[in-house]
Amino acid sequence: MNPRVEVVALDCLMVRLFDEIAETNMPWLLAASASLRQVFAGHLIDLVPSYTTLMLQYDLRALTPAQARDLIAQALVDLSPNAHARGTRHTLPVWYDLSVGPELSLLSQRSGLAVEEVIRRHSGREYQVFALGFAPGFAFMGLVDEVLAAPRLSTPRKKVAAGSVGIAERQTAAYPAVSPGGWNLIGRTPARLFDRERDGYSLMQPGDRVRFEAVSHAEFIRLGGDDSPLEAQA
Questions:
Q1: Domains held by the chain: number
Q2: Residue 213 belongs to what domain range?
Q3: By Cβ atoms counted within 10 A, which residue in 49, 55, 97, 177 is the most buried?
Q4: How far is CA 109 from CA 78, 105, 148, 175, 201, in A?
């Protein structure tokens, strides 16, 4: 780890801890986040963790940029990750089907695996939430099995159904609401990923762990899922 501080805006600094995305980064990022919150206390406006960085916005009326940098340096002294701080574990039920996950066949062809094996491999591991972005409640997770990695669609869809589960490169995610999108869709979850009544709004937060669980169509409907084919929502 080689911490560096970069200027983002007049009252915003980026603390870069790593240069490459890795699942082992998150314990350090969470530890740094906790330490920064402690030293900045009431002078902290916002702190956003991501794959390799922490974006920190502070109260410019209370701290000069030099003082903010000094506090960052103080927060990172003798930093040690908490082995038990692994976030919340979530299990998201997913109905994997071509009608809602049209790229299942594409991933099958690219990987040389049967569709059933694509599903088994996607649902067979636990993913880490690296960051939230793109849309409220949209959690970037990884890393998927390398054989399932696929580039984003060359032409994004104008409308992707809420709950759609997709893959882009070695990341996976579920769309919290209807939106445009270019990820390879492989299924749909009935889980409510963003809720204004929920503390923090998003179901998932950076550092959380997520497992996708394949469910039948009947179970998907019982859990409140919308099985409208993707074409009907385009």
A1: 2
A2: 89-233
A3: 49
A4: 49, 6, 10, 24, 37
Q: For residues 114 and 118, give the distance between their C-alpha atoms in angstroms, rounded to a whole number.
A: 6
pLDDT band, residue 231 (cuts 50/70/90): low
Q: What angle do CA 184, 189, 193 make, to 5 degrees?
A: 100
Pairing status of strand 126-132 against strand 164-168: unpaired
Question: How confident is the model over 133-167, as pLDDT tens digits?
Answer: 888 889 999 999 999 999 999 999 999 999 999 99
Output b/e per residue, 200-222; b: 16+ Cβ within 10 A: eebbbbbbbbbebebbeeeebee
Nearest to 174 by CA among 139, 136, 124: 139
Of 153, 159, 211, 216, nearest to 182 by C-alpha is: 153
Among residues 76, 109, 134, the one where a domain terminates is: 76
> What is the C-alpha to C-alpha distance for residues 183 and 37, in angstroms, rounded to an integer?
34
Tokens 């009947």 sit on residue: 218
